[in-house]
Amino acid sequence: MEEITKEIGEKIRKAREERGLTQKDLGEHLGYTPMGISHFEKGIRGLKVNDLKKLADYLGKDLSYFLASSAILFRAENHSPHQAEMKKSVDAFEQFLNEQSL
Q1: What do you get for the CA distance between the two ends of the chain, in Å?
Q2: Phi, psi (5° rounding) for residue 32?
Q3: pTM for this structure?
Q4: H helices of the chain, where?
Q5: Helix/strand/coil for 83
Q6: Would you give the DSSP letter of residue 48?
Q7: Ordered domains of the chain (ranges, CATH)
Q8: Consecutive 10-residue runs of the chain (102 residues): their mean pLDDT?
């Protein structure tokens, strides 16, 4: 789980920097301190799904941009017979998350 949190954090930092925002700017929008944003970006702490969706909307990214790849989530081998099923499951979960925020 720590690996996933770190990957998402790196993507948060990258997306924030692409928009020219500071940790303070992002924190004010989400209701966190700059230190809280730093913890998310370093993977020390994970974001709630609702906040991740809010962050994605604010930064102009799809939620899928921040979600870890299915290969990391499931540690699947490239030729795993279950890889297509796992990807379908991850895609369905992403769709569910997007519907929850409507």
Answers
A1: 27
A2: -125, 160
A3: 0.67
A4: 2-18, 23-30, 34-42, 49-59, 63-66, 70-74, 83-100
A5: helix
A6: P
A7: 2-100 (1.10.260.40)
A8: 82 95 95 95 89 91 76 49 66 70 54
